[in-house]
């Protein structure tokens, strides 16, 4: 486009404004799901779950160091990294819109206005905003890559006959390849870019110098995955998958085949083998349901606050139809402005929407089909996978608004008509206003305080078995970033099925590796005690590798702290529970054993009759709790409240003097419905304590206080006071 000058200054201002918006609504600490894992691995240069995300980990660490002079907490710094990368993406999409609208409007301010409106809608779409003020995932980096690649493609288009143009195209390809070491989402522009090159300038594909440089850049970009085996060999605190390679050649083959072959540990990490994702053709839910699930997420984006329901609803539907129509009008604007750019953005949009629905192949939606069996539906909402598509659609809607505005003022000579048409751009503020309180994370300390409370439920050098992401990753964050109760050994039951995790647990609990108990966290119950003299396991690597799943051929008798536990012949014991039993047997003499749930593993391995509640955790007490040998102070709750045993005095001390409940109690909106079990656990704990308090003749006023606390947590467990219409 001869004579076109990109609006870089305006783009920078738009990015800055969006960054400020995200900073205002920024989470002050960690959050649920993968946020804690990524903050902790960024801080400690660790290796998160497959595919390991080495580019993200490295960038996050550099970002933390750059912001360290500001005195910000690590969590705030990494959350600002998410805000920054989304703001960068917004700036690039603004430039793309401006490039298109400069063909539509002669007056530059009109192109700027239309581009700003699209940037606002893209940046304040619910999922985009909600993922940009806390670093829950690595996807904001990939969105920035997608936006940058798209802008570089347009720069090549405008300068394709010059060396600068070729460099832009090479930079676009390199960014995609390098971005793949953050997440494969970064390569999603590839189909659009390939079609764009074929339509605009296929001659570049037979340019030997260009092809040589392109191949070289691909090799260099992918090589960033070498971070994984190098860092794994240094045994970082979080080292998921343990992708160590014995030879450089094996690592090289694994890296350049993306885990198809080569070094097994690295190949399994890069290919995400542990998740066992079915083939695309093997649909996990009917395609019609998967498309409806996508529409559900699209329905959330533009006016989430217009209706409380998670399902597509009447309250939001008019806004959804409006923004769907504006995006479609945006395509007509693209067609009119530039057919080649139309091809690029149409294919990119298709890839980020329908293409992802087909490729991701989700189970039934978490809230779309709540009555279906839990194993047949996703464990949480998956809208974040469509983050880039929602941001792009907001910008397409901005093109649509501009196209409608152009039609209104077309042929009108008076500027008054343009002024009369300007209010149409106020539509761009709908997502900003309607999504604010649903996307706002300021003041939310829930995940951090949950981690603190759970860790403080455990005695010094205790072992706690956890069940999944939300009772594990926040604990990792608390230990590795805030140095809270590093003496506690956190064991994720699901990871015990891997070949690397049990060995890591054994090695990290050796006396020379065991972190000491910090007396700062001492209480009347938690005194300073000596470091355990042995690891939680004495098994060799060969013995651990031999552990499998299956039925017991004869009665299995295990002595745990002097009590014989019998598992009858024919009973099925999986690899995970077998390791758990082994660790419990070997460690219980020197390490108190806890479970994050009184059900789950504790019940699965048949030890629930010896469980005593210590706040949010359940301690294994291998004694006859109902007999004369029962510890003084242990009280059993009523049958209607689960009949669990409680150390009442210790529980009251925990909930009154030690626990923190910021963002958990008295919450207006609990946005993530899939984590409502967190406040529900607090509600049930306080209700149980009130029940036990009555049986123990606790003063009526104290029982009443516990009951009121249970009710307060119960409001949050139902979605929050606003969700229930209480304010």
The overall average pLDDT, rounded, is: 92
User: Which blocks of ≥5 consecutive residues have pLDDT under 50?
Assistant: none
* Tally of helical runs: 28
Provide the β-strand percentage band.
Answer: 5-15%
Task: Report Rg.
Answer: 28 Å
Secondary structural class: mainly alpha
Number of domains: 2
Shape: globular
Q: Give helix % range.
A: 40-55%
The rounded distance between the terminal residues' Cα atoms is: 55 Å
Major pleated sheet: 7 strands, mixed
Number of strands: 11
Cross-sheet strand order for the largest sheet: 2-1-7-9-8-11-10
Which labels suit this protein?
mainly alpha; 28 helices; single chain; seven-stranded mixed beta sheet; 2 domains; two-stranded antiparallel sheet; 727 residues
Overview of the molecule:
α7 runs antiparallel to α8 and α15 packs across α16. β1, α21 and β2 form a beta-alpha-beta unit. The longest helix has 31 residues. The model has no long low-confidence stretch (mean pLDDT 92). It is built from 28 helices and eleven strands. The chain is mostly helical and 727 residues long. The protein folds into two domains: 362 residues, no CATH class; 177 residues, no CATH class. The strands form three sheets. It has a seven-stranded mixed beta sheet. A two-stranded antiparallel sheet has the order 3-6. A two-stranded antiparallel ribbon has the order 4-5. The protein is globular.
Summarize the model shown.
By secondary structure, the protein is mainly α. The chain has helices at residues 8-24, 35-44, 54-67, 74-104, 108-124, 126-132, 139-158, 163-180, 190-200, 208-222, 227-232, 248-256, 264-270, 287-300, 317-337, 339-360, 387-409, 415-421, 430-439, 446-456, 473-480, 501-508, 541-545, 575-587, 600-604, 648-658, 677-695, 700-717, and strands at residues 463-466, 489-492, 550-551, 556-560, 563-567, 572-573, 593-595, 611-614, 617-620, 634-636, 645-647.
């Amino acid at each position: 486009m001869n004579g076109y000058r990109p609006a870089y200054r305006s783009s920078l201002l738009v990015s800055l404004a969006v960054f400020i918006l995200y900073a205002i609504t920024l989470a002050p600490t960690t959050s649920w799901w993968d946020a804690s894992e990524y903050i902790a691995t960024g801080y400690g240069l660790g290796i998160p779950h497959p595919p390991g995300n080495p580019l993200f980990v490295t960038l996050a660490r550099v970002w933390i160091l750059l912001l360290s002079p500001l005195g910000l907490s690590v969590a705030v710094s990494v959350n600002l990294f998410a805000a920054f990368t989304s703001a960068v993406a917004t700036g690039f999409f603004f430039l793309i819109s401006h490039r298109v609208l400069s063909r539509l409007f002669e007056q530059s301010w009109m192109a700027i206005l239309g581009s700003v409106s699209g940037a606002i809608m893209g940046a304040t779409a619910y999922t985009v905003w909600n993922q940009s003020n806390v670093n829950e995932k690595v996807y904001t980096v990939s969105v920035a890559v997608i936006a940058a690649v798209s802008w570089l493609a347009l720069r090549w288009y405008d300068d394709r006959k010059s060396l600068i143009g070729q460099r832009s195209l090479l930079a676009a390809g390199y960014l995609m390849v390098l971005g793949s070491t953050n997440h494969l989402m970064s390569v999603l522009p590839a189909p659009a870019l390939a079609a764009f090159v074929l339509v605009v300038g296929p001659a570049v594909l037979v340019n030997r110098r260009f092809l040589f440089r392109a191949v070289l850049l691909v090799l260099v970009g992918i090589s960033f995955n070498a971070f994984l085996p190098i860092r794994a060999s240094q045994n970082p605190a979080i080292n998921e998958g343990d992708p160590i390679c014995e030879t450089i050649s094996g690592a090289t083959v694994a890296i350049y085949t993306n885990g198809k072959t080569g070094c097994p540990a690295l190949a399994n990490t890069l290919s995400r083998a542990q998740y066992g994702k079915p083939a695309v053709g093997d649909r996990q839910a009917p395609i019609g349901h998967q498309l409806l699930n996508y529409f559900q997420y699209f329905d959330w984006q533009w006016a989430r606050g217009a209706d409380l329901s998670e399902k597509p609803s009447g309250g939001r539907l008019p806004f959804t139809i409006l923004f769907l129509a504006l995006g479609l009008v945006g395509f007509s604007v693209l067609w009119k402005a530039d057919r080649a750019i139309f091809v690029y953005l149409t294919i990119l949009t298709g890839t980020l929407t329908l293409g992802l629905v087909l490729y991701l192949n989700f189970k039934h939606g978490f809230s779309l089909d709540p009555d279906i069996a839990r194993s047949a539906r996703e464990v949480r909402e998956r809208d974040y996978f469509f983050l880039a598509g929602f941001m792009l659609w907001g910008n397409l809607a901005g093109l649509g608004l501009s196209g409608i505005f152009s039609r209104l003022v077309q042929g009108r000579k008076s500027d008054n008509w343009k002024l009369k048409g300007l209010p149409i751009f106020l539509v761009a503020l709908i997502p900003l206003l309607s999504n604010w309180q649903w996307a706002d994370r300021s003041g939310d300390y829930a995940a951090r305080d949950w981690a603190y409370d759970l860790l403080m439920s455990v005695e010094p050098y205790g072992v706690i078995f956890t069940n999944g992401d939300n009772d594990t990753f926040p604990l990792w964050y608390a230990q590795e970033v805030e140095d809270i109760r590093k003496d506690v050994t956190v064991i994720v039951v699901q990871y015990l099925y891997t070949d690397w995790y049990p060995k890591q647990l054994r090695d990290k609990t050796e006396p020379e590796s065991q972190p000491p108990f910090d007396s700062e966290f001492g209480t009347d119950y938690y005194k300073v005690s000596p470091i355990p003299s042995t690891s939680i396991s004495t098994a060799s690597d060969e013995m651990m590798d031999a552990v499998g799943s299956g039925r017991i051929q004869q009665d299995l008798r295990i002595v745990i702290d002097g009590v014989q536990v019998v598992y009858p012949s024919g009973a099925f014991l999986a690899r995970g529970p077998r390791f758990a039993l082994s660790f419990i047997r070997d460690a219980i003499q020197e390490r108190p054993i806890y479970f994050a749930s009184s059900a789950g593993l504790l019940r699965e391995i048949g030890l629930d009759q010896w469980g005593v509640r210590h706040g949010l955790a359940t301690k294994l007490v291998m004694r006859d709790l109902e007999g004369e040998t029962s510890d003084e102070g242990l009280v059993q709750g009523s049958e209607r409240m689960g009949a669990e045993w409680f150390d009442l005095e210790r529980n009251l001390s925990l909930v009154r003097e030690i626990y923190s409940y910021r963002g958990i109690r008295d919450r207006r909106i609990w946005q993530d419905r899939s984590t409502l079990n967190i406040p529900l656990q607090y509600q049930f704990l306080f209700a149980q304590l009130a029940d036990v308090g009555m049986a123990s003749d606790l003063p009526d006023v104290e029982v009443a206080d516990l009951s009121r606390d249970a009710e307060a947590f119960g409001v949050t467990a139902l979605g929050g006071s606003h969700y229930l219409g209480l304010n």
